[in-house]
Design goal:
By secondary structure, the chain is an alpha+beta fold. It folds into five domains: about 150 residues, Four Helix Bundle (Hemerythrin (Met), subunit A); about 120 residues, Alpha-Beta Plaits (2-Layer Sandwich); about 55 residues, Helix Hairpins; about 180 residues, Histidine kinase-like ATPase, C-terminal domain (Heat Shock Protein 90, 2-Layer Sandwich); about 130 residues, OB fold (Dihydrolipoamide Acetyltransferase, E2P) (Beta Barrel), CATH 2.40.50.180. The protein has 19 helices and 25 strands. Helix 1 runs antiparallel to helix 4, helix 5 packs across helix 6 and helix 13 packs antiparallel against helix 17. The two termini are about 65 Å apart.
């Protein structure tokens, strides 16, 4: 059972990658509809469906295999240029991809399997395209397609045929993902498969055996109501360097001329036997042969003689543990260095310490790099979201993606998807206008939605921008006044008014739809981003569009923080939340009714939070002449009064929930170079605690 579960896990992981590839490539195919489709793109789509079909059979999932086979038949017609690509076909194929994804989730116990009726309905629509193809070909006088189809059907329903197959796969075929057992399974699906011989002459001694290379080859016999195309189709995607010989045992129906067909990169030639010229008794009929060869020069070995794969799959939990241990190593190395330098060290010892420091930093960078993934695949998945929303709302939307190569920690990429999806849906639903509205405003009928990612000041910035109608600040403020969020005589700036859309329950949507307008969502988006230690801001111009900017750390495992002291304790504030740090003058601090405190900084009044009171730290209270750390949350700035600022540090984050419990206002903990434990503050939670009973603005 252990091996079966491992194979099932590999199948699910690879199939989900193929599902993502199918979706993206189908969208690309739709963009090319009306023109000449890229043959490589079409082949890639067919290959993904073909691989899912074969894999599902090998892991015992016949329902998925049968459903994907029907989809594969339609894709095969597209591949043969016998079926035109249009929006209706792409929509159907995308629905089939969704169905396959749900079937995979059900196999992984992560959802319900699509009903048989749903699968049958999709299969019926697929078969409708197949039937419509032949009818259209006959009506148009294109007899070639009809004849090929008729011959195909006749051969499948006629007599049995027998093929001898010599299967000599390339030695490195396993590296390309081709499974010989899967090929044998596919052949067996077409009839009765007999293994005549398994050739072992290439198998080396055990100590010379490479687990990544294939040493076996097979001689097979396949008998059944099977066509030559069926057999050839099994091997259509074998890797370079493979040799596949297919010979039909019985003579095929006589033909008048030689015929040659091109299948991918394979030349298939069927020749009629020569006519007998002797007047003597005719000898036994010669065999008619059809040979398929995938013969190319074998690829050279990698330099250095390496034969293993260039990449391997590693459980992310093992990477997490590696990063954690490397972080501990960095802390331990820093403590050793501090102790040695404090007590005095020889030049040789100092040189050794510096060398170890350099090596540990490089090791840390390499370990962190293993968790970094490009954000491109996350962005690309929104092509489908935008396409479906635009179709449902009668809008024309062009999604532009920039900075796909920008890398983020895997854990951040996994968690940022939902917030981005909500913002993209809102942009299409509320931000971008209909073609008629855009024409009236003097804009192109097609709106533009841009998703971009780039590095800025040690962080990753993600932008979602549209060229739509922009935010209506007056409407937002009016709604906030009606909801009691702000007073009628507020003096908020336009940017502060825009930030109110992140307030729970505040929505200016004119109607409730399945997408938005229910008064929920943007506050959850902001909270999710803050949980990633990020922040979000808005820039909007009426009639020009809206831009959301999300700033995120490169990783959640390591944080750049500002160390501060509050009484005898040391805390860390993430640098991403800090605007500046200053030392205020006594006259800068003011109170209202002896309760709410404010600090005036360059003419701007900021709400004041005394951390020793907020955190309940005993000892010396934070005085007016102490240090002030200005932080930003939800577009507003706040002043945190602390005893002293100790400086910036890069630290490894530790979860306190695993050893204690969740603490409001604390994001985690870290060990400082002097061995002390410092709590990492959650600025957003501190602000919520400090002003839980106060209004957003006074």
């Amino acid at each position: 059972m252990g091996i079966e579960n491992e194979l099932k896990g590999i199948f699910l992981e690879e199939s989900r990658e193929h599902v993502a590839s199918l979706e993206n490539d189908l969208l690309a195919l739709e963009e090319a509809a009306g023109g000449a489709a890229d043959p490589e793109l079409v082949n890639r789509i067919f290959r993904a469906a073909h691989t899912i079909k074969g894999g599902s059979g090998s892991v015992g999932y016949p329902e998925l295999m049968g459903f994907t086979h029907t989809m594969e038949n339609v894709l095969d017609r597209v591949r043969q240029n016998a079926l035109a690509v249009d929006r209706e076909l792409i929509s159907l194929l995308l629905s089939c991809v969704d169905c396959i994804a749900r079937m995979l989730d059900a196999m992984d116990h992560a959802g319900e399997v699509p009903s048989e009726a749903e699968r049958a309905a999709l299969a019926t629509r697929l078969n409708g395209f197949l039937g419509g193809t032949v009818a259209a070909a006959q009506a148009a006088g294109d007899q070639a397609v009809a004849v090929v189809t008729a011959l195909d059907k006749g051969r499948k329903t006629g007599r049995e045929r027998c093929f001898r197959i010599r299967m000599r796969l390339a030695p490195d075929v396993l590296e390309s993902g081709t499974d010989p057992a899967m090929l044998l399974t596919e052949l067996a699906d077409h009839g009765t498969l007999a293994v005549e011989q398994v050739n072992l002459e290439q198998v080396p001694a055990l100590d010379a055996m490479d687990p990544y290379r294939l040493y076996l080859s097979w001689d097979l016999t396949l008998t059944g109501h099977v066509t030559r195309d069926d057999v050839e189709g099994v091997f259509i995607f074998v890797s370079e360097g493979s040799h596949i010989d297919i010979t039909e045992e019985a003579p095929a129906a006589p033909v008048n001329q030689n015929s040659t067909a091109q299948v991918g990169a394979l030349d298939i030639t069927e020749e009629a036997p020569a006519a007998a010229v002797s007047v003597e008794a005719a000898p036994a009929a010669p065999r008619a042969e059809a040979t398929v060869r995938a013969e190319t020069a074998p690829r050279p070995e990698a330099q250095g003689g390496g034969k293993g794969p260039s990449s391997i799959r590693v459980d992310t939990q093992r990477l997490d543990r590696l990063v954690n241990l490397v972080g501990e190593l960095v802390i331990g190395q820093a403590r050793v260095a501090q102790a040695c330098l404090k007590d005095g060290a020889t030049p040789e010892a100092i040189a050794a310490i510096e060398s170890i420091d350099r090596i540990t930093r490089e090791l840390q960078d390499e370990a962190m790099g293993m968790r970094m993934l490009p954000i491109g695949p996350t962005f690309v998945q929104f092509q489908r979201v935008v396409r479906d929303l635009a179709v449902s709302q009668g809008k024309q939307v062009n999604l532009e993606i920039k900075g796909k190569e920008t890398e983020l920690d895997k854990s951040i990429i996994e968690k940022i998807g939902d917030p981005l999806k909500h913002m993209v849906r809102n942009a299409v639903d509320h931000g971008l206008e209909t073609p008629a509205e855009r024409r009236a405003a003097g804009k192109p009928e097609e709106g533009t939605l841009t998703m971009a990612a780039y590095h800025q000041e040690g962080n990753i910035v993600i932008e979602i921008a549209d060229d739509g109608k922009g935010l209506n600040a007056e409407a937002i403020a009016a709604k906030a006044v009606r909801e009691g969020v702000i007073p009628a005589d507020h003096n908020l700036s336009e940017s502060q008014v825009h930030a109110l859309i992140f307030h729970p329950g505040l929505s200016t949507a004119q109607k409730v739809t399945d997408l938005s307008g229910r008064g929920v969502g943007m506050d959850v988006v902001k909270r999710n981003i803050e949980e990633l230690r990020g922040r979000v801001s808005i820039e909007s111009t009426p009639g020009k569009g809206t831009r959301f900017k999300i700033a995120l750390p490169l990783t959640l495992a390591i944080i750049d923080g500002m160390a501060i002291s509050v009484g005898p304790q040391v805390f860390l504030i993430p640098l991403l939340s800090i605007v500046e740090s200053v030392r205020p003058r006594p006259g800068d601090l003011k109170s209202v009714s002896g309760r709410d405190e404010w600090v005036t900084l360059r003419g701007e009044s900021l709400p004041l939070i005394r951390l020793h009171e907020m955190l309940g730290v005993p000892g010396k209270a934070c005085a007016a002449e102490d240090s002030l750390v200005v932080v930003e949350n939800m577009g507003r700035r706040y002043g945190l009064l602390v005893n002293d600022i100790l400086g910036q540090q890069q630290v490894v984050i530790k979860s306190i929930e695993q050893h204690y419990k969740a603490v409001d206002g604390v994001a985690g903990a870290s060990i400082l170079v002097d061995g002390r434990v410092a709590m990492i503050l959650d600025v957003a939670a501190l602000v919520r605690r400090a002003f839980a009973k106060a209004r957003v603005a006074c």
